[in-house]
Design a protein that fits this description.
Belongs to the binding-protein-dependent transport system permease family. It is found in: Cell membrane. InterPro entries: BP-dependent_transpt_permease, MetI-like, MetI-like_sf. It comes from Bifidobacterium catulorum. Helix 1 packs parallel to helix 4, helix 4 runs antiparallel to helix 6 and helix 7 packs antiparallel against helix 8. The chain is built from 8 helices and no strands. It is mainly alpha-helical and 225 residues long. The protein has one domain: MetI-like (MetI-like fold, Orthogonal Bundle).
């Protein structure tokens, strides 16, 4: 127990003698999978709401956007905690909660892009030619909206990982002994003076991952321009 990082245990061991490198690698699977599931929920939900709102317009646009405004008025972390408390603890509920909390931003972006594309000449020509609305959405609008939304998803990926780790740190994630990055950081908070590597190394891994995702997203955004 409490062995410092060495050639035998690269990240050291925790208070139960478990190898922290193995647990950090295992926790990466749970945390990144939850982040990807959250993004999938946010992207798909945002695309559906944003395109429906902008393309249909009228009362549908008003109702959908006011609902999105309500979600935007609630801090994301508070909304996530409220949702995960209602549906139960665990990795999947955390992913769902963060996905719903992240959805409004994607809905707003999708709506703005759809309104821009909707007024292009080729879309108006398709409407005049009698092309069905569903085909216009999939053939013209969706394929052009996916680029900006994908870049936004990459930009949000780091923030979503931080949110997943935060909820896991607060105890809303998987139950012990399952490993997640947030729970690994939480495990060592009582040993910061005597065995700081238990919390600091998983925290450093989170920071590096978020930084890498942010740099990649910024490069993709420049390429998109």
């Amino acid at each position: 127990m409490f062995q410092a990082p060495s050639a035998e245990h690269w990240f050291g061991t925790d208070q139960l003698g478990r190898d922290l490198f193995s647990r950090t690698i295992y926790g990466a699977h749970a945390t990144v999978t939850a982040a990807l599931l959250s993004l999938a929920i946010a992207v798909i939900g945002g695309l559906v709401i944003g395109i429906a709102s902008a393309y249909v317009g009228g009362i549908v646009d008003t109702l959908l956007m006011r609902s999105v405004d309500v979600l935007l008025s609630i801090p994301g972390l508070l909304l996530s905690i409220t949702i995960v408390t209602a549906i139960g603890f665990g990795t999947t509920p955390v992913a769902i909660a963060i996905g719903v909390a992240s959805l409004p931003g994607f809905a707003r972006t999708t709506r703005a892009q759809t309104l821009k594309i909707k007024n292009h000449a080729y879309v108006e020509a398709a409407i005049v030619s009698g092309v069905s609305p569903l085909r216009i959405v999939f053939s013209h609008i969706l394929r052009n909206v996916l680029g900006p939304v994908s870049v936004l998803a990459m930009l949000e990926f780091g923030a979503v990982i931080m949110s997943v780790a935060t909820l896991s740190f607060l105890g809303f994630g998987a139950k012990p002994p399952a490993a997640e990055w947030g729970s690994l950081i939480n495990d060592g908070r009582n040993y910061l003076i005597t065995s700081p590597w238990i919390s600091l190394i998983p925290g450093f891994v989170v920071v590096l991952t978020v930084l890498a995702a942010t740099v990649l997203a910024n490069n993709l955004k420049r390429g998109e321009r």
